[in-house]
Design brief:
heterodimer, A: alpha/beta, Rossmann fold, six-stranded parallel β-sheet, two-stranded antiparallel ribbon, 12 helices, B: alpha/beta, seven-stranded mixed β-sheet, five-stranded mixed β-sheet, 21% strand
């Protein structure tokens, strides 16, 4: 389906906010990469460099009340949703001040105050749980919405199909957001998926489905705005496939041998962050000093969070007995 | 099927019911007491018959279709919906028709329900109850009858409950629903239709506490679920053989009541663990190992285990009977333990 002609358009403030969220993701990603490369962080890292427009645009429409379920490649979704960076950094460093006390790590970051309810390391598993959160939103009589992020590979797992069917049947306020970065781990999209567009699968479940240029904030804005309004108004779920590219492969250290010659370089040429920045300036939505100040502020926040995380204490060993159940287990 | 609730307002008394009716009464009571309690599963609402066994009959009529929802045949979606609602403050009771079908939702149960509290550092919790039916005896064969309590007992973060009689069905289900952590509540073919008097004001029975069915001094027998029913069938023959048997119904498999079992074996010096689940790597092995570690010096004989052979549940009645640990096998092993 194509975007409606009367689609809402972002104003300068909205565009600047989306850019701020993108920059926060990218600056944070850059700090994680450099800290890993210096040997000061040991963690599996699934960078989303290149995919920033998607969570930044979605989060522009969300409040802390709205919830997300995301996946192992999900730090961008949390940063976009304004999750505080200090406990995020302490968590990825495995420290006691981490949001999960160092017990979840980068693949299970959780922060209910900002609506980060579940981060799963299992492909596809964000979706069934997002449905339950959306069911609760409905039972509560609230206008809360839930975002289920999942990768293109996850559209081939059973949980996707069960979840879309149930969400449509129950008219749940959930938006299924698939950043399609072209690869399921190392398998090219077309070698693992029976349709050329994941959005086509929405038809089978009786819900609207759209394929959007996930690197285009204007196009994203229009579709996300419509999908979220639909969910808030009790009209049910939407499937959004957002095409994009991941610049750092499946996991950090990936040799990218499964990519075609020149494919990555071509994608990097279209890096959405500098392109969007330039267009904001060219069209007069924001001026250079404002963006420079924004960047300075974000970099200071990231540096402070990194230093906080790395300076935090290691968790006491008896934490392994806590939080298994509500009641602490005996030694 | 009774669909009346037992409420505190009713004069104290008892009602004769089977375990299914006890489940139904517990669900009515829990839903009336707390509007955060939800029920979902395949065919569970009244238009679909109130559940394949009728355990949920009357609930959707009384509490409405938003709180009591029939679902598609989508076990991952069912457990996922329960988990999500629980994360948002609800207490969902999800019915997975048969225990073998819980394997379809294993990722949701094992990787998510059981672990989210720990992985989130205690920020979130998943107070769901999964009701599920299983057990040999109905000739449902290889994919409808397995006792998988050992699988779940091996997982950190989920409680495993397996009652044997209507009082415990009601009291333990109420506790599961109230519990702040995920519980799997196993309803068993061999125990479902054995009636008993249940106090009308029967409230929650604590999880993790065994019940001493009969006191004795020669030998401890630990069982649960349908196997407790079969053990009770063996009691007259054991008494006739002159054995003073202490029969323990474990009731909760994880966390299990070590104190009660250890105190009993300390007294009797002999232990037989019998369960319907496959013997090898079954929960009996954990109990036997614990007793051997803790009470080696007081054991008068090696700990014995009885369980199903390591084969799928068979169809033909003669094979199914051979698969199940029968009362006479329990008697024979008990006598052998006495030397």
């Amino acid at each position: 389906m194509t975007q409606p002609s009367n689609a809402p358009q972002p104003d300068s403030a909205a565009l600047t906010d989306i850019f701020r969220r993108m920059l926060r993701i990218e600056r944070n990603d850059d700090a994680i990469l450099s800290t890993i490369r210096k040997g000061r962080l040991q963690m599996p890292y699934y960078s989303a460099r290149g995919q920033e427009v998607i969570p930044a645009t979605i989060s522009h429409f969300l409040t802390d009340e709205d919830q997300i379920c995301t996946i192992y490649r999900g730090i961008q979704d949390m940063v976009a949703k304004d999750m505080p960076l200090k406990p995020l950094w302490a968590e990825i460093a495995g420290r006691v001040d981490g949001t999960c006390k160092g017990k979840g790590g980068p693949m299970h970051l959780t922060h209910p105050p900002t609506g980060v309810m579940v981060t799963t390391g299992v492909v596809g598993s964000s979706m069934p749980i997002a449905n339950g959160l959306a069911w609760a939103a409905k039972l509560d009589g609230s206008r809360r919405v839930v975002i289920a992020y999942f990768g293109d590979g996850a559209s081939n797992i059973g949980a996707f199909h069960e979840s879309l069917n149930l969400a449509s049947l129950w008219k749940l306020p959930v938006i299924f957001v698939c950043p399609n970065n072209g690869f399921a781990e190392h398998t090219r999209f077309e070698n693992g998926t029976s349709v050329d567009r994941i959005s086509k699968r929405a038809i089978g479940y009786g819900m609207p489905g759209f394929t959007v240029d996930g690197n285009d904030p204007w196009e994203m804005y229009a579709q996300v705005s419509t999908a979220i309004a639909r969910a808030r108004d009790g009209e049910g779920p939407t499937l959004l496939e957002c095409t994009t590219f991941r610049f750092l492969g499946h996991v950090l250290g990936d040799d990218n041998k499964y990519m075609a010659e020149g494919e990555l370089a071509a994608a990097r040429e279209r890096d959405p962050l500098p392109l969007f920045r330039q267009r904001l300036l060219d069209e007069g939505h924001v001026d250079e000093p404002t963006l420079a100040a924004m960047q300075e502020k974000i970099e200071a926040e990231v540096a402070e969070a990194r230093d906080f995380g790395l300076a935090s204490e290691l968790p006491p060993v008896d934490e392994i007995r806590r939080d298994v159940f509500a009641q602490e287990m005996m030694a | 099927m009774s669909t009346t609730t037992t409420s505190a307002a009713k004069p104290a008394g008892t009602s004769k019911m089977n375990s299914l009716q006890a489940v139904n009464a517990a669900l009515h009571q829990a839903m009336a007491a707390d509007d955060k309690v939800l029920v979902l599963g395949e065919d569970i609402a009244d238009p679909e018959g109130g559940g394949v066994t009728g355990a949920t009959a009357g609930l959707s009529t009384k509490f409405g279709g938003e709180r009591v929802r029939s679902t598609p045949i989508s076990e991952q979606a069912i457990i996922g919906a329960a988990i999500g609602a629980a994360l948002a403050g609800y207490k969902p009771v999800a019915e997975i028709m048969l225990m073998n079908f819980t394997t379809v939702a294993m990722d949701m149960i094992f990787n998510h329900a059981a672990k989210l509290r720990f992985m989130s550092g205690g920020q979130t919790s998943v107070p769901i109850t999964i009701r599920t039916l299983t057990g040999a005896g109905w000739q449902t064969a290889g994919q409808h009858a397995d006792h998988l309590e050992g699988w779940y007992a091996h997982a950190a973060g989920i409680k495993v409950v397996a009652p044997s009689n209507p009082v415990d069905y009601k009291g333990l289900l109420l506790s599961c629903i109230d519990d702040p952590d995920p519980c799997i509540f196993i309803e068993s073919a061999g125990s479902l239709f054995v009636p008993a008097e249940v106090p009308d004001d029967q409230g929650p029975i604590p999880l993790g506490k065994a019940r001493i069915v009969q006191e004795g001094s020669d030998l401890t027998i630990v069982t649960w679920s349908s196997q407790t029913v079969r053990a009770q069938m063996a009691l007259p023959a054991l008494a006739e053989a002159g054995l003073s048997v202490e029969l323990i119904d474990l009731r909760t498999i994880s966390p299990w009541d070590r104190e009660t079992v250890l105190a009993s074996v300390r007294k009797t010096g002999r232990l037989l663990v019998a369960h319907e689940a496959v013997r090898d790597f079954g929960p009996g092995a954990e109990i036997a190992a614990t007793v051997s570690e803790e009470l080696f010096g007081v054991l008068k004989a090696p700990v014995r285990r009885l369980g199903a052979p390591k084969c799928p549940v068979p169809f033909a009645k003669v094979l199914e009977d051979a698969y199940i640990v029968q009362p006479d096998q329990m008697v024979a092993v008990a006598q052998a333990l006495m030397g």
